[in-house]
Automatic annotation (TrEMBL):
It is an enzyme of class 3 (hydrolase). Its EC number is 3.1.21.-. SUPFAM superfamilies: DNA methylase specificity domain. Keywords: DNA-binding, Endonuclease, Hydrolase, Nuclease, Restriction system. This is Restriction endonuclease subunit S. GO terms for molecular function: endonuclease activity; hydrolase activity.
Amino acid sequence: MGNLWEKAKLGRICSRISRGSSVKITEEICKESVVPFVRSHNIGDGIFIYEGLSFIEYSAAERIKSVKLEKGDILINMRLSSSLRFTLVPEDIIGGMVNQHVSVIRVKKNIIDPIFLKYFLMWDKTQNLLISMVMKGSVRTTLTKKAIENLEIYIPPMDQQKKIAFILSSLDNKIKLNNQMNKVINEMANAIFQYCFVDFIPFSQDEFRKSELGNIPGCWRIEKMKDIVPVTDGTHESPKKEEAGYKLITSRNIKNNSIEFKNVNFISKEDFKRINIRSRVEKLDILITMIGSIGNTLLVQDECIDYTIKNVGLIKTSSNKEMAEFIFMYLSSDRMKNYIKTRITGNSQKYISLTELRNIPVIVPPGNVIIKFNRLISKLYKKMAQNNFINSNLTNIRDISLSKLVSGKILLEDIT
């Protein structure tokens, strides 16, 4: 640590550490009410996740005992998992409330900068310390207020805090911009697919016929997925975890047509080779989650693949490359998402079977239509893949920089 860095327990430098309250899932929670109501799934790794955000009426907000969010508040996911998640309250969520699985940290801003503290909390060493404090001699799976209050924080002078926060935020802002660009590109691709293969606008003059999926152009056909490309899945075993090696991807790692590699498990080279005999992932294959969050898809764009899969569907469109983007878009469509939902089984653990994946009905246009569509869409997805690759590198740089900056291993005077 720098000579001027102080050390203090988090409870001493906060004006408030508290958790939210529960609200019954009734008509009081809806999409068009006025007070944001933040739950644990809205807290990402340093980001706020708007998907699934609920709102409550003013009357419900007045009845519950929950902290009212202010600028600079830090939100923590209280449910303990392989990692904890922290994020700052976004501007448009100020005034909102949180449920009982979310804790709010409000710092004394004359002592510590909220953005600096967010990054300190994201530091692997901090997360491991909090987890060990909770789990020591206990079977708890929820982070406690006492653990948060007793966490020791290193406090640089305020000017250094702000500089560190600026450096790390600059990297995160670039990642955010690339994610926003990918969201726009994906919306463009979806709109093109909807125009061509759901609304059939370019083919409106064709003669249509009835099919199991509704009316389709007369010369188009419907085939089962397994008759177009091979369909398999990853291992169902749990290979021994290693400190380093090849990555083992599960359903939790696949989101928004990308893979989250943070907190992924590693396996040996031998296990990697053994799994790949049946489930080798190649460029232009499609991965689809089969357990938990079912139906999330990824079009593989990597040239070098150092991971294998567990309980994840593998659609081998690499064997029929001209169909890759089309099938990926088809599986991502609302029609197929709804179709997959109706095929989910299981009680305590929801899943979709490999048989169901193999029997997915696919509307197949003539070859020349597929070729024209892929020429356009492949350009969009290549740009998305480039952005994902850049973001992966930026995330690695941020994590390394975060560790060295908030720990004081690299002092600002060493890099200025």
